[in-house]
Amino acid sequence: MRLFHASNATAALVLALLGSANALTLPGRREAIQQFLSTYVTSAVLGGMILTNNPSRNWASTDQSTEEESMFAPKFVQEYADFVKTNEGWSYRDVSVGNGASPNVGDRVVFDWSGYTIGYFGRPFEAKGGPQGGAFDKRDVDFSRTVLGSGEVVKGLESAMRDMKVGGVRQVIVPYGALSYPADDGSHDRVGPKPTTFSGQRALNFVLDNPRVDRTLLFNVKLIRVDKPNGKGGFSRGDRA
Predict the structure, then answer these.
(1) pLDDT at residue 240, rounded to an integer
(2) Pure H helices in the chain
(3) 71-100 exposure pattern, b = at least 16 Cβ within 10 A, e = fewer
(4) Which of 59, 49, 44 is nearest to 13 (CA)?
(5) pLDDT (0 to 100) of residue 192
């Protein structure tokens, strides 16, 4: 078996996955990461599913044509065998497909989310218990909203919600760059979703501002509702999951 030299980044992904699962059904974070490093395979329970992380990841160097790219682009692009990589560059896996309607560009989507940094030891920058049914049973006021196509949320996450169905839960891996948070919006007021706590925003910015770590992000997202334009500048409320 080939020694996996990029264990820190992969271990961080494992911690992020563990952080999104039910702590009552999983071993401790330290125990889990020790098990991963010794066996190169870690299985985690998430919403009733077994997630098996393949230790052999494909890494490819990216060309750095300018000084700016060398400062702000990741040196490596990591492929996750258990996620589907799209042509745009973001990757996903569906935890639950959902059985409701899918949104169109111009629709307002209501969603809940959590987020983790992969290059900062799986630290959450928005933690809400992960994509487990009951953890998302909240009042509408607690959810996030965006109009698809508006660019109000990071492109990777917005694209990921376009073919989801109401009630669906999806994990989305967003690489640093055009698909992620813009470098000139450190407050995340222009492009969200914005962490709801100061510590979360600090953890996120620590990674985004640090070219020495993998700035890839992991989002857990559940599509709660799709609201259609009513022709009067507002939206007609859709059915909730």
Answers:
(1) 84
(2) 7-19, 29-39, 67-72, 155-162, 198-208
(3) eebbeebbebeebeeeeebbbbeebbebeb
(4) 44
(5) 92
Task: Kindly tell me if the per-residue pLDDT of 234 is higher than 60.
Answer: yes
Q: How many residues does the chain have?
A: 241
Q: Let me know if residue 241 belongs to a domain.
A: no
pLDDT higher than 70, residue 25? no
- Number of domains making up the chain: 1
Confidence of residue 43 (pLDDT cuts 50, 70, 90): very low
- Contact (Cβ atoms closer than 8 angstroms) between residue 125 and residue 215: no
Q: Residue 145 in 3-state DSSP?
A: strand
Domain annotation covers residue 166: yes
Reading the block at residue 54, the tokens are 């393949």
User: What is the span of the domain harbouring residue 129?
Assistant: 7-236
Q: Residue 20 corresponds to which tokens in the numbers above? A: 């999104």
CATH code, 40: 3.10.50.40
CA gap 164, 71 in Å, rounded: 34
Strand pairing of 84-85 and 76-78? unpaired
Quote the pTM value.
Answer: 0.67
Domain assignment of residue 1, yes or no:
no
End-to-end CA distance of the chain: 45
The SS3 call for residue 38 is helix
Angle (CA) 10-15-19 rounded to 5° is 150
Is 156 contained in some domain?
yes
